[in-house]
């Protein structure tokens, strides 16, 4: 009897399949950058507007003491207290607009990726937008939980009443950050597989979400394994991009500042493109395991 196939054993073949079809990665890169570049431009414009009304000198950021981290932390906190109302005023309108734009563009982009990957599927961008908005809501909830947890750690380990517990604070920050990242990777697979169920089994978005939670232990285990591995790959890409950008630092005097900025830009672009490529690989993995565990069942039900 053949040994059971693990969720990650077929990833190499799926990586090769996606690599041979660069149009899939190009579509994924295209819709993400179509969202990200305008968002960064808006953030830059708003940041310049805030700095024009409240310059760095007025906030005390030009007098930061680099020799004393505790004094510098207090100075940064005082400066943030001045900037916080301005930033909050921008976020009140920017976050809803950005969320709506991401849901629309990601729904359209993912619909094109699936249509290119499986030409026989129906093109259902409106339903895809709804499912992408649900995924974004889950991510926002995880980010909110992480932020509240870090705020609790800061309130309990860095207090004016005693000496700050920097070691304990750092340990909690690392533990909570990795914990929330891993938890999101483990639970978000249900919302990641729902668009595929909707398209491959011709379901409504609500029915696809409901069925994504009742796929059986074997199929669910493979989906969670792939999602977790892709989360680890994303962390590895972050580390690799940091190494690529930091490796030339010993030669910065010979290379010059322009070359260092160019290397940083190349490392950043490499991370984003590689991350988008592995996003498509994950989707291809989901499709293949759907065929393995539900393909015949769905075909039989349709007939």
In the predicted model, the low-confidence regions spanning at least 5 consecutive residues are 1-5, 299-303
Beta content comes to under 5%
Distance between the termini: 31 Å
Round the mean pLDDT to the nearest integer and report it: 84
Please tally the helical runs, counting DSSP H or I stretches of 4 or more residues. 11
Spatial shape: globular
Structural class: mainly alpha
Element order, helices and strands? Answer: HHHHHHHHHHH
Task: Kindly state the number of beta strands.
Answer: 0
The biggest beta sheet reads:
none
CA radius of gyration:
23 Å
Name the helicity range: over 70%
Structural account:
With 303 residues, the chain is an all-alpha fold. Helix content is 82%, strand content 0%.
